[in-house]
Amino acid sequence: MRKIVFIFVLLFSMSGVAHESSELNKTMKEMGHIYKQAMKAQSAQEMQAHLAELTTLVNESKQFQFKQEVSAESVAGLNKVLETITKASQEIDSGRIEKAREMLLKIDELRKQYHKLHEPPSFWELLFGS
Prior knowledge:
The chain is an all-alpha fold.
């Protein structure tokens, strides 16, 4: 009976973690979509609207529970994204849309850098360690 209860509790707790992870994944995909729209924007108003939406999504992402060992780094990465959005927004306000677009390229670099923190270990890392 204890084993059944233990298994039930384990499965229940895993489903909560999986749900949180799936919500974060959904939010991150939406962020990627909004980022692409901002990069393709033809007007300052359109780009600003996308950046405002992106800011909201980044702030939402900061509320998720990251793995404890990478939580601080993940939040730091999201803060860097917010800083970049703020700088790009200032460039747009100054009428320099192309400069803002160049600044937004840093977000893609940050994405690549910080996604490495959340990649699952490869088969070889599991087998031989890192």
